[in-house]
């Protein structure tokens, strides 16, 4: 408990974590009263697994009609959302679903969230980037993730790549939080090592960022009485700490052996706990800079976060010393010099990123040095993330982080010897 906390915590009305639960989901939806649904997924799950057919058949048997949209794509764009909206409104012929189920990773979940608004309104998704009006109908969303990392199955926003501007936009509203998050760890067993690594480091990033982000009593809520994000508090930090510990224990294990059941289940919990933290606390510089990196490289969300993460944590070694010392101990950094322990943590994180097969600096990641100023401008342009970064001079800190990340430079390189292997 912290006496100055201003807690505004939101979670799904139903959170389920159970192996094999996908087989029970149709019964739950029927019992709630849903009768007409839309399943949003992609061609892989529709054509290469039995899950979609099994789900539709089970629902129809219970009297729940399901339309399937299998056009999901990685990093969905505003154009994809608008095309899907137009196509589905024609196909549905005015009979809107009473719920939308997403099956897939964060990309499919984000697309489904956007469709929860655009299908009912019949308007382009960009219309909602400034907010969703209180009288705008939002279709209920049930998320069924197949990766362990994004946490989108619990959060209030959808992130889409805006083809007009070349950067990602966010549509935020607590009504976009799935009403049911059904996590079946068995679904993650199809993830290849690359997806396992990039989604897993995403979970760790969410937990770390929210653990050290701006405090709730300092967070700018823009005057909202129902903010999607509202700064860290004792509750979010509790979930973040648990997620970090699980990532330390299971992320590399899961990456190295995708059939390790304990590790797969452990990373599902890590993803959920991270989402329970950042889904209310919010994020800051890692994601803010990573959005700009994604615009330049079009690489995955998890990888763009990973390459930036060590350098952002390095920049907070003083402003968040106590919290990062806690994290350093979780990572097995046991040197008695607390300053050196905190400075060793970014080296440990960079080593983990490398072990997951992800480049560890922006140069190796494909960012030209001549692009660094544009990257800085784009990153600072995501103001909701920049102003949550708990440092003195945010613009100067962002510039240093980007420059250090390009050169692969961390404080006191010699402190790396304190990092656990």
UniProtKB/TrEMBL annotation:
Tagged with keyword Oxidoreductase: yes
Pfam families linked to this entry: ADH_Fe_C (PF25137), Fe-ADH (PF00465)
Source organism of this protein record: Pandoraea cepalis
Protein family membership: Belongs to the iron-containing alcohol dehydrogenase family.
Record keywords, A-Z: Oxidoreductase
Cofactor(s) needed by this chain: Fe cation
Domain Alcohol dehydrogenase iron-type/glycerol dehydrogenase GldA: 12-185
Record EC number: 1.1.1.192
GO molecular function annotation: alcohol dehydrogenase (NAD+) activity; long-chain-alcohol dehydrogenase activity; metal ion binding
Name of the protein this chain belongs to: Long-chain-alcohol dehydrogenase 1
Limits of the Fe-containing alcohol dehydrogenase-like C-terminal domain: 233-382
Signal sequence extent: none
InterPro entries associated with the record: ADH_Fe/GldA, ADH_Fe_C, Alcohol_dehydrogenase_Fe
């Amino acid at each position: 408990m912290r006496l100055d906390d201003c807690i505004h915590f939101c979670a799904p009305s139903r959170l389920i974590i159970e192996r094999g639960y996908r087989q029970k989901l149709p019964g739950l939806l029927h019992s709630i009263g849903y009768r007409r649904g839309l399943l949003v997924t992609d061609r892989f799950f529709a054509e290469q697994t039995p899950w979609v057919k099994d789900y539709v058949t089970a629902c129809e048997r219970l009297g729940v009609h399901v339309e399937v949209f299998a056009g999901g794509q990685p990093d969905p764009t505003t154009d994809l959302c608008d095309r899907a909206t137009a196509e589905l409104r024609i196909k549905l012929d005015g009979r809107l679903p009473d719920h939308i189920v997403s099956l897939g990773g964060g990309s499919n979940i984000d697309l489904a969230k956007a469709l929860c608004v655009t299908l009912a309104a019949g308007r382009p998704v960009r219309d909602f980037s400034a907010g969703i009006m209180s009288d705008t109908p939002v279709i209920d969303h049930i998320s069924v993730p197949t990766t362990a990392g994004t946490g989108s199955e619990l959060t209030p926003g959808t992130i889409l790549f805006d083809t007009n501007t070349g950067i990602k936009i966010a549509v935020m509203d607590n009504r976009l939080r799935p009403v049911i998050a059904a996590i079946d760890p068995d679904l993650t067993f199809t993830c290849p090592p690359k997806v396992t690594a990039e989604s897993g480091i995403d979970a760790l990033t969410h937990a770390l960022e929210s653990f050290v982000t701006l405090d709730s009593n300092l967070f700018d809520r823009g005057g909202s009485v129902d903010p999607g994000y509202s700064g860290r508090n004792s509750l979010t930090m509790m979930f973040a700490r648990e997620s970090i510990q699980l990532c330390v224990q299971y992320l590399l294990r899961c990456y190295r052996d995708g059939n390790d059941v304990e590790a797969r289940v452990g990373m599902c919990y890590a993803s959920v706990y991270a989402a329970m933290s950042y889904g209310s606390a919010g994020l800051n510089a890692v994601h803010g800079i990573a959005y700009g990196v994604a615009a330049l490289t079009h690489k995955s969300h998890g990888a763009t976060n990973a390459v930036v993460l060590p350098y952002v944590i390095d920049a907070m070694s003083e402003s968040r010393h106590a919290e990062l010392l806690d994290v350093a101990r979780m990572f097995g950094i046991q040197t008695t010099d607390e300053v050196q322990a905190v400075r060793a943590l970014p080296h440990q994180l960079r080593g983990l990123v490398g072990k997951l097969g992800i480049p560890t600096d922006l140069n190796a990641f494909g960012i030209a040095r001549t692009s660094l100023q544009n990257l800085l401008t784009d990153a600072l342009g995501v103001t909701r993330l920049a102003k949550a970064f708990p440092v003195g001079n945010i613009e100067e800190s962002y510039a240093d982080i980007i420059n250090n990340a390009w050169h692969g430079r961390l404080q006191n390189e010699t402190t790396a010897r304190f990092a656990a292997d």
